[in-house]
Each structure stands twice: as C-alpha cells, then as structure tokens.
Amino acid sequence: MIRINALTKKYGELAALSNLELTINAGDVFGFIGPNGAGKTTTMRILATLLTPTSGRAFIDGHDVLTHGRTVRRLVGYMPDFMGVYDDLKVFEYLEFFAAAFGIEPRKRKGIVEGVLELTDLQSKKAAPVDSLSRGMQQRLGLARVLIHDPKVLILDEPASGLDPRARIEIRGLLRELKKMGKTIMISSHILSELEEISDHVGIIEHGQLVFSGTLAQLRQRAGQQSKVRVRVVQDHDKAVELLSALPQIADVHREGEIISVTFHPGQDADGIVARTLVRADIDLIALEPEQLKLDDAFLQLTRGLVH
Amino acid sequence: MPTLITTLRFWFDPLRWTGPIFDKELRVSSRRRRNYVLRTAYVLVMLLFIWLVWVETVSDRVSSANVIAQMSRAGIELTMAIVWFQFVGLQLVAVSMLSTAIRDELASKTLGVLLTTPISSLQIVIGKLLSKLLQLFALLALSLPVLAIIRVFGGVRWDYIIAALSITLTTLVFDAAVCLFISVTNRKSYQVLAAAVVVLVVLFGLIPLMIVIIWDDLNLPWVTAEIILSYVNPFVVLGMVTDSALYGGGIGFGSSNSFWLTHCGIMLGVTALLLLVTTLRVRKAALRQMAGEPARSLLGRRKGRPTIDSEHADESRIRRLKGKPIVWKELREPLVRVRSLWQKIMLTLILLFMAAFYGYTVYRHWMEEEVFHILFVVIYMIAGMFATMVGAAAAITKERETRSWPILLITPLTDGGIIYGKVVGTIRRYMPIWLFLGVHLMVFSLFGYINPAVLVHMPLIILNGVIYAVLSGLCFSSLCRKTALALVLTLLFSLGWMIFLPMMLGIAGSSDAIELLISANPIMQSGVIMEATSGKYNISSGNYYYDISQGLKYDWFGENLGFVGTTLALVGFTVLNLILSMVFFIIARTNLRNKLFSK
User: Fold this and answer.
1) Across the interface, do B412 and A86 touch by the CB < 8 Å criterion?
2) Could you tell me the end-to-end alpha-carbon distance of chain B, in angstroms, rounded to an integer?
3) Helix or strand or coil: residue A5?
C-alpha cells in the first residue's frame, strides 16, 4: 500500500531523509519509531503531499505522491503532530467543512459526520466550538477528521502525544477499531509501549535512514540477541553467581538483593543451562524468568549511534 | 542623606521601569533579519526622496549666483521634505512594529508565564514600548547627519528642526501607546494593526475634518479651530510650525508661536494615561490566557462565548454548510464581532452618528455640492479597500499562524480552487461596506443629487478596487508567514504606487507617468466621477432623463474625456487591473504550499 524508494529530503546541507526505503502492506498497522529529528515527520509529510522530496519516490496504492497529489489526498487521511483549529467553527461544522472539502455529496455529509462523531465518541461535543475543546478531545476530533472521507491509508503523527493516560487508552482502542476496519495505518509515537500493543510491523528510523523494518518478533530477534533471565534462589546467592559466571554461554551475571540477572552471549538463548547448573549444585531454585525484550529496549539498542 | 540617595536611585533606576523585558526585546530584535531589511529600506527610500527633492529644487543652473540662491531654498525644502517624510514614514513603521508587541506574548502564551515572575505589568509595557521606540529613534537619528549637512546650505532654522523632531517623537510615542493598548486586548496582530490604523485615521483625519466642516458651516472664527487642532493634532501643528518656518515668525521657546510645546505636553499626557490603562489590562489579559480563555475583544467581555458543557444540548447553533466550503468557512468569521453590550452600544452610536451626519448634510443642503459626495465616496472607497486588503492579507497567513493550513492542503481541493474560495469569501465578507457606497449612490441618484451616469462608472471602479484589494492582499498573504507582515507589505505596496511613486515622479518631473498612475487609482477615479456627476450643478447641466451624459465634464487632468471617453478609459483600466490581478493570482497559487511548517 505504501512504498518508498530512495527517498531523500534535504534542508540546505542537512539531510532529513537519506535514501529511505520502506514498504507497508495493505491492512498493516505500521509503527514508525525514531528519536526526535530522525525524519519520521518529514517522511509522513511527504506521503501526505505536503512536502516535496529532494529525490526519490513515494507511492500510495500505486500512485506517485509527487505527480498524483490529488489522487493521493483522497486515499490518505493525515493527522499532523499538531492540531490546527479554526476559531469560529463548531465540531460538527468543522467536520462538515472537511467532508465538503473532500468532495462528499451534500446529502451524505450529515450521516457521515454523525458516523465519525459516534466512532470517536464526540457526539456530545458536536455543538462545542473547536477551540474550546481539551487536548484529548482535539486529538479525537483530528482522528474524526481523517476518517471523514473513509481513506484507505491513515498517516498519524504522534496521535497520543500530550494526552493523559485515559485519553491514550481511548485513542488506542479507537486505533484497534480502525485496524479491524482494514485500514492501513502508519503511526508514529514516542510512547513505544503503545505501538507495541497495536502495531503489526515497526520501522525504526535514525538520521533519516531506516535502521530496522519488520515484525515485532523480528525486531526482538534482531535486537534481543543478548537474552536475559532473572533467577531467584533460596540461599547460596554468591555460590550461584560464581557458578553461573563460569559458564561459557553467559556474558554477565550480577546480583541485586535476592535476584540474579543473567545475560547470555549473543546468539546464546539457553536458559535451560542455568536451571541445570543450579540444580546440580543443590541450590534451591525459586524462580527463573526470561526477561521479555521491550520495544523500548530494542529502540535503544538499535538507535544507539548505529547510523551517523 | 544616603537614604534619600538610595530612594532616588531606586525610583530613577532605568532597569526598575524597563526590567529584563527591554533587554530581551533588544536581543531578539537584533537577531531578526527583517529589522535590518526595514532600516536599509527606510534609509534607501529616504535618500531617494531627498535626491528627488534636490534634483527638483536645484534644477536651473544658469549662473553661480543662481545656484547659491537655489542652495538656500533647497536647504529649506530638503529639511521640510525630510521632516515630513520622517513624520509620516515613522508613524507607519511604528504601527507595524508595535502592533505585535504584546500580542506576540499572548499568541505564544508567554504573557502569563512572565507574570509568574517578579516582573510587573508596568515593566512589561514600558519594556516593550521603549525597546520598539529605541529602534524608531534609531531610524529618526539616521536623518540627523543629513540635516546637519543641509544646514551648510543655509536658511534652515534650528528651532524648526527641534520643534519638528519633538512633534515627531511625541506622535510616535502616542502611536506606540495606542498600538499597545489595542494589542493587549487582541490575539490577532492584523486586527491590532487594522484597528490602530483606523483609530489613528479617525483621530488625526476624520474628526479634524468634521470639526473643520462644522466650524466653517457655523461661521465660527477659524483661528479658534486652528488653536484647538494644534493642541491635539500633530499633522496640524507640524503644518503650522512649517508655515512659521517658511514665512517667518518665531517658533522657539518663549516665542508667540511656541504652541507646539503645549501640543507635545498634551500628547505626552494622553500617552501616559493610555499606558496606565494598558498596564492595568495586561495582568487581566495574562490571567485570562493562563486560564485558557480566549482574549477579550477591545470593548468588553465575550459574554456570548459558550462553555463546553452548555454546548452539549445546543445543536440549533450549528450552521450547516452551503455552497463552496472555503467560501462558507470565510463567511463564518463575522465582519464585526458584536458580543458585549458595550460593543452593541458603540456600533449603534456609530450608525446613529452616520445617520445624523447624513441627515444634517441633507438638511443643510450640503448634498447639493459635489464636494460632499466626493468626500463620502472617497471615504467609503478607502474604507472598503482597506478592509478588503486586511481580510485578504490575513486569509492565508492566519491559517499558517494557527497551523490549520496543512490540513486544508491535504484535501483534494485544488490550489486555484482554494484561492478562488478565499477571493469570493473575502469579497462577500466585506460586501456590507461596499453596500453603504452603493446605497449612497443609488439613493442620491434617485432623489436628484447625483447624475445616474454614476451608476455606469462607479460599479466598474468598485469592481477594480475590490479585485485589486483582494488579490494584492492574497498575493502578499501567500508570500508571508505572519499576517502583520503580509498586511504591512500589502498596504505599503498600495501606498507606494498610489501615493509615493506619483509624488516622486512629480518631483522628478515625469508628468505623463504621474497622470497614468493617478488615473489608474480607483480612489482618484471615484473622485473624478463624483466631481463630474454629483451636486445640483451637474444634475441641472443637462436633461439627463433623455441623455444622462449630456453636459457632464469629466476632468482627467484638465481634459474632459466625456461620458464615452471616460467609460472607455475605465474599461481600459479594468483590463489592466485584471492583468495585474492575474499576476497576483499566479504568485499566490505558486506560493500557496510554501512556508507550511517553518516557524
């Protein structure tokens, strides 16, 4: 659904994007991750036809964003990382305005606006002035706006930024609904745990280049080469540390109170050896928990100065 | 004694009054490229102006004695040219600079933050004022070396220069105070700028004009009106000082004509009062901003502003979209916001005043003279074109400022379609002002005060004025990021070709070019048409029931083009205007998608 080939965007000498290559399949929820200034927003703006790339091409549903801007705009719902509001419009009027701007027939507009208001749970606010809404409500309204023309692709630039936990949960629920509706969603966020819950695929970008693109499992496999386990024993903690440190598969062992953290060498993921070693030494094992690699950790590992 | 010194130091320490705001403003302004561009442009225009005056004055070099005699005359004329250039030019710069002073803090939501620090409201106001005034004074000081050189030619009196500079300074401070006062109550810089221009034009132009008209009608002693106006109107006082300098008579301290001193005192007193009120309002504005409330409008609270809770059930207030979306959205912003009781009272008073003035002019048979029709029509034309320019100059930049522009540009609306919508929306929003003009022309044509021939020409002129105003405004709006800058450029462009360029060409002696430029100006065109068609004399000069154009004299620089010739000339100007407007349209469309994200 989205294809980016050798996309480059330069602002003077500064390259915001450098030969970016990316593919997002139809129906996928693609989490776009990267540090500040990595090029996420620039990529999204180019896909939304708001920026012209210096070189390279980008396609949405087979249409070049550069040469078929109007067609692409009908296919895409773009929610920027800020909410531009019109002072003098009410929520319903705001949505109806965009329905008209997207060329929806007058007789269908009311029904469609009511529909998106219901989907985004904004029914009760439809007569409220847009600029009087809270940040969370404005984000919902932004989502309602991008849905008004029923686009195939949603490009959401940090839709949950600045929201309180309840609003974030609600937005997440809404995105799940959209995923069920078969939309292709490209979403960026700094709150990585959120992307983890809703994304099928993730892409990590740093310094304008894609460091990783794939499923979450692939990400863990790549970033989580150094698996960890947490071990709890009844007694003989020092002896356990000594035994485990001697194992050639293990890179590091350290103790924090009753918990012993064991880090394997890259490519070694044999937590069975830990249990066997401790049992053979008659050390009573209470718990052995593999430490699940979080998206946050993967992000930190993959973006730690890998690309300059 | 030390206590007294400490107390005096405390009270007269400049930092006590300006605080860190002054320092911050100077730092920020030194980093803004536009300030350097402004200074350079100002100096270049002033030098060009001086050069043209010089060329005009010292043109006849027949003999060395003649040249020496001309030098002395050139000295006086150059000094007066510089004095008037600075007086008018710096007021324009002051309004454009000061209109954003406090509004910037409101827009960036830093005013509330400032007031959480020990900085006082007074320090904010004085800091803002002095930092901008310092830049204005720097511009004013640029002319001092030139004035010193001109003194060598002889004939220029120091007391005139001192009086003129004092009047200019006090006027600038007053203008600055008016801008700050309006700036505190309004979030939108272009509204501040437009309101400041309107207030100053009314104070220094319309009110004196009406005083003069009524004074003349009541046969009151003219000298009394002159004295009153000299105290409160800087244009009048500068004119009187210039007259005194030209035709003799002392204007210095202690002389009989030192009325400018009283004028400066009065202006400073009013300025102090305005600054005091502004200071009192700053804290309230900051508190409202911190509380997340919209800024109050100029005259009172926004009582009609509904809260979110009260909005739930009130769906009847939703207005359904009809027609083109951009036009509909443009029309959702009202021409005049009338929410509070005070605003309603003010609007009613203005309308009553207009009705009374109309009634009085008819009662006194003034409408039988063309000069009053010219006056009304020219005022309507200026008001209509100014308002349309303000609306058009804000049309794109206000969306850039509120960051709603990108989300409009990701809709399938074409760039041309968006501009078309903005053009139509802006024209329709400001239609009521043009309707006043239309009603004036039709009613007075119907009752025999204006020849109906006016209804052939004036629609063409109005069309020209509207199209020019809206497309020039949109063109500069597409080129700028900030509305205030777009508005300033739009107004400067128009003032440039309508007033300054003809003036300079006049000085350079190019009469054909001047006549063409002045004839192309819709305001001047309306003056020519009204002079030819209005008043009892023009009505009775021909039997217009059979031939409306019979006997009408259209005076285009001494040449009577007649009805047909004038019609053809206006059609020609309309074609030229349409070509120019097409250029504006293309520039606007080309730049529509620029400056989307950068601050």
Assistant:
1) no
2) 54
3) strand
Cα–Cα dist B176/A89, whole Å? 33
Residues 6+ apart with CB under 8 A from B491: B92, B197, B386, B389
Interface membership of A96 toward B (CB under 8 Å): yes
* A303, part of any domain: no
Per DSSP, A90 falls in state B
* Confidence (pTM): 0.79
With an 8 Å Cβ cutoff, are B319 and A93 in contact?
yes
Pick A103's closest partner by Cβ from B305, B412, B596: B412
For residue B559, give the DSSP letter. E
Determine which of B288, B305, B309, B407 to mutate to test the interface with A (most A C-beta atoms within 10 Å). Answer: B407
B526 or A257: which carries more pLDDT confidence? B526
Residues A212 and A229 in one domain: no
Min Cα–Cα distance to chain B from A295, Å: 30
Whether the pLDDT of residue B301 is over 50: the answer is no
Q: Which of B314, B321, B593 to mutate to test the interface with A (most CBs of A within 10 A)?
A: B321
A125–chain B Cβ distance below 8 A for any pair: yes
Instruction: Assess whether pLDDT exceeds 90 at residue B570.
Output: yes
Q: Are residues A155 and A261 in the same domain?
A: no
pLDDT, mean of residues B212-221: 82
Beta partners for residue A2, in sequence order? A24, A60
* pLDDT score for B553: 81
C-alpha span between B42 and B494 (Å, rounded): 17
A23 and A108 inside one domain? yes
For residue A85, give the nearest of B319, B404, B414 by CB distance. B404
The domain that holds A187 is classified in CATH as 3.40.50.300
Q: What are phi and psi of A245, to 5 degrees?
A: -65, -30
Checking if the pLDDT of B331 tops 90, the result is no
Looking at residue B549, what is its pLDDT? Answer: 56
- Is A80 touching B (CB cutoff 8 A)? yes
- pLDDT tens-place string over residues B224-238: 777 888 888 999 889
Radius of gyration, alpha carbons of chain A: 24
Q: Which of A89, A96, A126 sits opposite B315 (nearest CB)?
A: A126
**Burial profile A91-112: b = 16 or more Cβ within 10 angstroms, e = fewer:** bbbbbbbbbbbbebeeeebeeb
| Inter-chain CB proximity A125 and B312 less than 8 Å | yes
Structure tokens at B39: 């200074």
**In chain A, what residues touch B333 (CB-CB under 8 Å)?**
87-88
What is the distance between the alpha carbons of residues B136 and B130, in angstroms, rounded to a whole number?
10
**Domains in chain A, number:** 2
Cβ neighbour number for residue B68 with a 10 Å cutoff: 11
Q: Do B410 and A49 touch (CB under 8 A)?
A: yes
Pick the residue with more confidence: B213 or A217? B213
| Residues in contact with B113: Cβ distance below 8 Å, sequence separation at least 6, in sequence order | none
**What is the Cα Rg of chain B in Å?**
26
Q: Residue B62 has what pLDDT?
A: 58
Q: Cα(B370)–Cα(B373) distance, rounded to whole angstroms?
A: 5
Mutate which of B109, B293, B410, B598 to test chain A, going by most A C-beta atoms within 10 A? B410
CATH number of the structural domain spanning residue A236: 3.30.70.100
What tens digit of pLDDT does each residue of B403-413 get?
Answer: 888 888 989 89
Q: Is A139 on the interface with B (CB under 8 A)?
A: no
Same domain, A215 and A254: no
